[in-house]
Write a structure and sequence with these properties.
single chain, mainly alpha, Four Helix Bundle (Hemerythrin (Met), subunit A), about 0% strand, elongated
Length: about 150
């Protein structure tokens, strides 16, 4: 029993360190990669919205309903990924109150979070385009330069 408790304790400690790792000032994370990941999530949301709309236009069957539900779940998951990146990475760690563009960057970050929420609420592809624009606007506010990504859709 002691071995089990020791192993369980070790597992819990490791799991909590892995989850908290993002907020340890280790310096291994890349702002550029965070933006690229958010754009990849947005691209997935856009694809999901197109697929949901295509399914809605077709003949409803059990398979179509199942596939639509899976696309909705995917869309929700990727929008949540973006919201988590904004909250846990940018808001908690990277956007500093003493930075020159603090207010502008804060507004831009909030705009991304709201745009991601709207993507959850809608299958309208315009919401994904607005999300993409908000990510680019955050990049401009945060980095102070135009985005340079290989991102198209």
């Amino acid at each position: 029993m002691t071995r089990f408790l020791t192993a369980a304790f070790a597992l819990m400690m490791t799991a909590s360190m892995a989850m908290a790792h993002c907020q340890v000032p280790c310096g291994i994370y890349s702002d550029q990669l965070r933006f690229e990941q958010m754009l990849e999530d947005e691209h997935t949301i856009s694809k999901a919205q197109l697929e949901i709309n295509a399914i809605a236009e077709g003949k409803m069957s059990a398979q179509a309903i199942n596939q639509s539900a899976r696309w909705v779940t995917t869309k929700e998951d990727h929008a949540t990924n973006i919201q988590n990146t904004i909250a846990a990475y940018f808001m908690a760690q990277r956007i500093k109150p003493d930075s020159e563009n603090y207010a502008k960057t804060l507004v831009a970050a909030h705009t991304v979070m709201v745009a991601a929420m709207k993507c959850k609420q809608s299958a309208d592809p315009a919401t994904a385009k607005a999300l993409e624009k908000s990510i680019f606007d955050l990049y401009r506010a945060y980095e102070g330069k135009e985005p340079d990504f290989e991102h198209t859709h």
